[in-house]
Amino acid sequence: MAVTSLRSEPPATTPNEFERLHRAWRHKQALWDVASFDPARVGDLEDAENDRHCDEVHDALIAFLMHPATDARQLAIKLNVVASETAYAFSEASAIIGQLASDAHELIPTRGAA
Q: Residue 67 burial by CB count (10 A; 0-12/13-18/19+): exposed, middle or buried?
């Protein structure tokens, strides 16, 4: 008789592109936080380092927000991020809002909507 383990291993999964982009943005934000709040640091980040982190976080956030949502949960996550990060004030706001509208249009069945 074969002995089987009582512990089951979770199935190997890979994040989908939405999850990958969301995690990439959160990771860049975490790296900026770690650099900014390093207990060994005296004072603020140098301007060049702060600007680099800002640009990396911004680029990752835009990539995430511009990626199409494939279900209502993803759209809700994106809407929450837009609100929490005040992305509606970004210079890319028109494109972001356009993508959110496109996501909603694809996910919500409508008849003859504009």
A: middle
Q: What is the pTM of this model?
A: 0.82
**What is the per-residue pLDDT across 4-52, written as a single tens digit (0 to 9) for each?**
445 655 555 677 999 999 999 999 999 999 999 999 988 999 999 999 9
The length of the chain in residues reads 114
Task: Give the pair of three-digit tokens for residue 23.
Answer: 């995690």
Nearest to 74 by CA among 32, 36, 29, 22: 22
Q: Provide the H-helix boundaries in the chain.
A: 17-36, 47-66, 72-84, 93-107
The two structure tokens encoding residue 84: 């929490």
Give the list of residues 6+ apart from residue 36 with CB closer than 8 angstroms, or none: 44, 45, 50, 53
